[in-house]
Each structure stands twice: as structure tokens, then as C-alpha cells.
């Protein structure tokens, strides 16, 4: 085996494989990967620190989503400034992808219907993590001289954290610390490692997207991968090589694709309303069921739900903050609430749609199937041949929007590494388009592993600084809640 391939596979196993196993009654066990050991405690910690924000401030979250975007919260296409809603749409574009379709199917296939419950639980604590990292992105964002508006994310708040710590050792006052914290071009090692990991990850994901789209179109329409890939890359190039096109296109694609997928699921639920109690019964009984514990399957139920929730909502990885920083919100906490809502949209809505489409189909029709075949069979049961075509088109939209979203994320990380210049921005876009094309023609497992390594390293570097910086997000949250109380006074 090639030494480089061996290193990548070894790192993938270390980051995402079972680092330790905890035995359970009945011969079962829970395998815990390094990512689970990092992200679940982080989510619990931030849920406690924010006083269960996802549930406590859920009405405020909905209010922020529905309020009219005006003033600093409104988008300005001519300046590149994003509204809070646009930043949410960009981050939702990257969260919602193939994992919401085939990934959920795989989780239920391996862990049973009970995995859905643990996926929901993971979304609640993941929303707290997403809130903190998005609020920090707003607090530490920088002016974007190329595209207009702002850029930021973990590379920038990691940079400021270590810079402030160094300055504080010799500074005489907080004012002096703030005066010396302006980004001066000297890079921080941890920020560099985060940005490099992110760009590697998104390059790998580009290849995965190309392969997913070409495979789905070949299965559903018998279209040659070469033709579907050329069209995909050509459309992507037209959008990403234009200055402000990405956010505008995602404004159209994301609400449409999420809305139509949700509407189709509601139609299926209404048509099978009599089966709904039994589906919920399966989800909850298999999540805690005595049968699963005795049969040794509880670990699979729990961890497949947890892992799918973590993989899907990306909370803690540091991806979504790159979009959160771009918004010109009138309070940092608003973007935290937007991104917490994004986790709910991804996991509680889109992933649940896939779960119900699968669980409302007769189990004997899905026996011995897996992956896209299983999902297409479930859709064919609900909608006939149209269902197979529909799921291929949905996968195309989900995957395409993910590609656009990760290139938007890349802006700020490229700028951190190479400075504000068009050459480096253009170069990475061409690299991502090449990866998209290569992936459409052939599947390279090492590139998939490279993407997993990238997101794993991003998570580690991000969490290193999120813990000490979380006090800034909590301070901002307290200030926002004081404002809420003032607004409610008669």
C-alpha cells in the first residue's frame, strides 16, 4: 500500500473509528470514536452554559427567523453583505446533502428505528454548539476587501484568541490589547492548520459530490457519468466564478429543495396517517427497548443515531461559522440563533423526512436493500416510478448546493492563508471544479477518507479555542436577553 494512503487511512480510523468500547448488559457495547468523545461532551457543556438554549429560546429562534430583514440585518447584493437569513441558507446548503438521504438510511439500517430518536437528541445539544461557534464568528469577523461585507470563522477567532493572549502578557490595559489585536498578516499556527484542514476537507467533499450525482443519475436515468458530470461542472463554474452569484443562487435552490422535500414527506405522512402511531412507537421503543438491550443491539441503536446527527449537522466542525461571520447582523447572538435553527432544520426536519419516508414503507419491500437502492425503493412504493426520478433530482440539488456552499466557506480560509487577493481565490475554485469532475468519473476512496480527516482535524482545532472563548458568547447572550426583557416591558 502507498505510504501516503496508509497514513490517511490510519488517521481516518483514529479520528472516526472506535477509540474505545464500553460494554453493556446483554453482550452489547458502545463504540466511541474520538469525534464522538469530543463533540458530545462539548455539546452537553454548551447546552448547560447556555441554560438549555435550544429549548429555552426556541420561540425567540423562530421569531428571529420570521422577522423582517431590514437595516443592518438586510442583504445588500451590491456590497456582498449577507443578511442573517442568507447566511443561514448558505450554511443549510452545506449541512443538507447526501448524508440526509443515504446517511439516514444507513443509520436506520444498522441501528433500527431507535437511531432516529438519538439523532434528534444529538440535534438539540448540537444546536448549542452551533450557537456558540456562530456567535464567536460574529464577534471576531473582519472586513472583506474582495467580496465586500465580512469574512471570518474559526481561523479568525483562533487567531485573535492567541494574539490577545500574547499581547495581554505585556500590555498595560484592555484598551491597549484591543488596539494591538488588528489582523496584521502574521499567521497563527493553529489557525493555519484549521484553514488547511478545511480546504483539504472541502476538496475531498467536492469529489464525493461529483461521484454521488453521477451515480444517482446513472441509476435513475441511465445517463453516462461523463455527460452528467460535464453538465454539473459547467453549471457550477458559471456560478462560482462570478463574484456575487453563489449566495443569490443558494437563495433560490435551498428553500425550494428543502420545501419540496418536506412537502412530499408531509403528503406521505397524511396518506399513511394511520401508521404514524406505530412508527413513533418503533422509534421510541427501539431507542430504549429492553429487546434491544438483551439482544445486544442497544449500542448500535444509540451510536448510529448519534453519529448520523453529528455528521449531518456539522456543529463544532467550524464550517458554518464561515457563513455566520459574513452576515451583517445588528447583534452577534442573532446569528447564533440562526445557526442553532439551522441544526434543527437539517436534523429534525430534513433527516426526519428521510426517516419517515423509509419507516412508512412496508419493511418486507425494503429487506436486503441498502443505501440509495433502499431509499429509491421506498420512494417508488410511495410515488411509483416518479419517486425514483424525484429522489435523484433531490440528491442533485442537495449535492450541488453543498458544493456552492463549501466554496463560499473557502473564501475566508483562503484569505487567511494567502491574503486578500483574487489569484488564490480563483485557484482554489479551479481546484474544486477539477475535483468535482474527477469524482464524477470515478470513486477514489482515499479522497473520501481525506475529507473525513479534514473535517476531523477542523473539529479538533476549533474546539481547542471554543472552550475558553465561550465566555464571550455567553456574555453576548446575557446582553441579548437583557434586551429581550426591555422589549417586552409595557
UniProtKB/TrEMBL annotation:
Its main location: membrane. GO terms for cellular component: plasma membrane. Keywords: Cell membrane, Membrane, Transmembrane, Transmembrane helix, Transport. It is a multi-pass membrane protein. It is found in: Cell membrane. Signal peptide: none annotated. It holds the Pfam family Na_Ala_symp. The keyword Transmembrane helix applies. This is Amino acid carrier protein. The lineage of its organism: Bacteria, Bacillati, Bacillota, Clostridia, Lachnospirales.
Amino acid at each position: 500500500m502507498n505510504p501516503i494512503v496508509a497514513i490517511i487511512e490510519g488517521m481516518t480510523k483514529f479520528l472516526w473509528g472506535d477509540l474505545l468500547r464500553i460494554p453493556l448488559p446483554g453482550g452489547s457495547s458502545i463504540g466511541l470514536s474520538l469525534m464522538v468523545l469530543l463533540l458530545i461532551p462539548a455539546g452537553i457543556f454548551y447546552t448547560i452554559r447556555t441554560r438549555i438554549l435550544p429549548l429555552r429560546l426556541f420561540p425567540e429562534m423562530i421569531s428571529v427567523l420570521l422577522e423582517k430583514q431590514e437595516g443592518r440585518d438586510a442583504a445588500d447584493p451590491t456590497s456582498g453583505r449577507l443578511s442573517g437569513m442568507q447566511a443561514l441558507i448558505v450554511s443549510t446548503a452545506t449541512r443538507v446533502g447526501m448524508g440526509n438521504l443515504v446517511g439516514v438510511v444507513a443509520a436506520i439500517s444498522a441501528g433500527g428505528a431507535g437511531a432516529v430518536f438519538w439523532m434528534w437528541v444529538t440535534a438539540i445539544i448540537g444546536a448549542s454548539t452551533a450557537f456558540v461557534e456562530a456567535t464567536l464568528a460574529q464577534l471576531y469577523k473582519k472586513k472583506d476587501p474582495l467580496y465586500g461585507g465580512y469574512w471570518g470563522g474559526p481561523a479568525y477567532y483562533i487567531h485573535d484568541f492567541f494574539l490577545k493572549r500574547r499581547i495581554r502578557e505585556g500590555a498595560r490595559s484592555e484598551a491597549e490589547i484591543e488596539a494591538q489585536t488588528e489582523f496584521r498578516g502574521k499567521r497563527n499556527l493553529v489557525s493555519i492548520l484549521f484553514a488547511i484542514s478545511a480546504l483539504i476537507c472541502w476538496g475531498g467533499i467536492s469529489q464525493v459530490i461529483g461521484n454521488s450525482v453521477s451515480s444517482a443519475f446513472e441509476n435513475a436515468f441511465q445517463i453516462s457519468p461523463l455527460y452528467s458530470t460535464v453538465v454539473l461542472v459547467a453549471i457550477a463554474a458559471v456560478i462560482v466564478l462570478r463574484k456575487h452569484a453563489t449566495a443569490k443562487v443558494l437563495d433560490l435552490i435551498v428553500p425550494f429543495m428543502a420545501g419540496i422535500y418536506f412537502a412530499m414527506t408531509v403528503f406521505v405522512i397524511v396518506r399513511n396517517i394511520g401508521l404514524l402511531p406505530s412508527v413513533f412507537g418503533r422509534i421510541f421503543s427501539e431507542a430504549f427497548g429492553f429487546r434491544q438491550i438483551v439482544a445486544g443491539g442497544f449500542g448500535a441503536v444509540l451510536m448510529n443515531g448519534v453519529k448520523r446527527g453529528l455528521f449531518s449537522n456539522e456543529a463544532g466542525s467550524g464550517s458554518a461559522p464561515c457563513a455566520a461571520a459574513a452576515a451583517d447582523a445588528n447583534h452577534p447572538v442573532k446569528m447564533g440563533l440562526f445557526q442553532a435553527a439551522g441544526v434543527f432544520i437539517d436534523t429534525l426536519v430534513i433527516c426526519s423526512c428521510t426517516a419517515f419516508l423509509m419507516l412508512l414503507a412496508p419493511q418486507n419491500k425494503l429487506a436486503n436493500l441498502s443505501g440509495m437502492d433502499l431509499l429509491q425503493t421506498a420512494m417508488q412504493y410511495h410515488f411509483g416510478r416518479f419517486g425514483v426520478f424525484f429522489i435523484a433530482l433531490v440528491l442533485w440539488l442537495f449535492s450541488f448546493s453543498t458544493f456552492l456552499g463549501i466554496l463560499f466557506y473557502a473564501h475566508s480560509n483562503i484569505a487567511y492563508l494567502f491574503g486578500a487577493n483574487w489569484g488564490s481565490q480563483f485557484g482554489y475554485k479551479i481546484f474544486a471544479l477539477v475535483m468535482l469532475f474527477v469524482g464524477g468519473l470515478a470513486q477514489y476512496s482515499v479522497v473520501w477518507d481525506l475529507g473525513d480527516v479534514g473535517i476531523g482535524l477542523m473539529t479538533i482545532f476549533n474546539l481547542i479555542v471554543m472552550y475558553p472563548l465561550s465566555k464571550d458568547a455567553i456574555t453576548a447572550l446575557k446582553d441579548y436577553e437583557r434586551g429581550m426583557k426591555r422589549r417586552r416591558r409595557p
